[in-house]
């Protein structure tokens, strides 16, 4: 019951009559007496009560009453008690959750991301040690790059000492053209090549904005090198050289005052620079800072097609390439940050880039550009653009009001599932048509690489449209959405070895490794601790073995994250081996597990009690938010908090982006 004004006045009078007994005088700072402070608070309460009374009277006045519709039953207009109205009206689902991430509250509306985030907190004890302050394999987002763009120190630095040596300039350019440009085509190679030639003799002879672009280009080139290649070509550590080029990019941009002097070259620089930072920087901050690129592009009208703006064919085509790369990267960064979609405005009409080579584009020419039939250097990028279109189309089909993706009932998700199946079929048809017209294995390495990725992408998306209760393993190995997630993260893993091998042969393994995340690998391995037997478990161990076959840095247990992951693998294998031994089956320890045991100095007798039944994992509070049977925007494309690359945590895991767990 609320105290009325009379009660408050009585309380004040009673306090005023309290006899004060003087105590021992203590020298201290002057402050208000407790009685005075309390009286002031009571006075404030009185004032608030008066305001509340006035507001209540105003709200209940006849002028503020909504007119009742004609023909309404009189009883329907009777006021409903507050408690009853609260029980009758259910708040609408927000379609997201607030997640506490290392003391920071983050909004996430991706079901898989939230679920894995919660699951990680539930299974951390499987790998944590008793050493205080020891880092965890589940991610420690770095603040080492907090000066990613905005620092007072950069405008005062000189770019002269940061530029590559002249002997390296053209070599890095050749590497970019061969390994990076086919993946991320945001520059016009003939135009930039003339600037590279000038920079190789006198770096200061080219404009400052062009210097910034070359720094970003060279950073991508170094990113595509292995550590051994970097030492052989550059005579330097790969990470040290990359850090130097990042500083050069930031310094040139700061000197340019790019927020006030932006153009196409600045956008190209920022796109390449942020791409090179992926997996080395806080994923949430990467998405936020990526919004800067979106805003700059929109300010320059890149969201409107150049034909409608009366621009030249060259500028129109380059703007299309840049805009669609922005859409792709922003969508990817949003998903990695735990959001279900990019949140890009829908009022853009920029057409998809055409199937043309750079030699078909001439700066300043007014001649129209016609797409080529057959393969071009745009092959892989056209795949990416179709994927970006798929993401934007999926966002428009996703209706939060009609379907709650957090629901456990597959029947309620049936409309969404049907729409997603249609969407995947549309994607598959467009990719098949693209492949028939413009992709040819004899046209170069990028086409071979593209052909290897497409079947896995489509198979993954198709299997994810199958509702949980229609999965072949339902009732035997899949009992809840936690089990279904375990299968989801392995979809495509059966052909992972082929992806690695093809990427090595074609020179694009850097791209595969660049999107590899340790966090999700740790999640899968921790799940194997709880699932020692079963067909899904067999597939999971095949996946882990493939990863260790190609990601050899995981064997370096001198780095804490890799040591933590190694301990988790050993624990999971001990559980599996013991359960099989109880069933009378002897398992041979895989070579990579033996190597991890030797590196850790840990015999295979270390065992962890399996959690739950060997066949079934019970649902816990941490599993209440598992993803739907298929969330086209969230189930598969998510990843977890970043690994600190600067501390040696080289971003392996699944490739939680646009092409599933391997890309």
TrEMBL record:
Biased amino acid composition, Polar residues: 54-69
Intracellular or extracellular location(s): Nucleus
Every Xylanolytic transcriptional activator regulatory domain range: 286-359
Keyword Protein biosynthesis appears in the UniProt entry: no
Keywords: Coiled coil, Nucleus
Gene Ontology terms, MF aspect: DNA binding; zinc ion binding
SMART domains named in the record: Fungal_trans (SM00906)
Predominant subcellular localization, coarse grouping: nucleus
GO cellular component: nucleus
Annotated GO biological process: DNA-templated transcription
UniProt feature coiled coil, ranges: 417-444
Domain of life, source organism: Eukaryota
CDD domains: fungal_TF_MHR (cd12148)
Positions of the UniProt region annotated as Disordered: 48-100, 603-624
Coiled coil found in the keyword field: yes
InterPro entries membership: Sec_Metabolite_Reg, XnlR_reg_dom
Protein name in UniProt: Xylanolytic transcriptional activator regulatory domain-containing protein
Species of provenance: Clonostachys solani
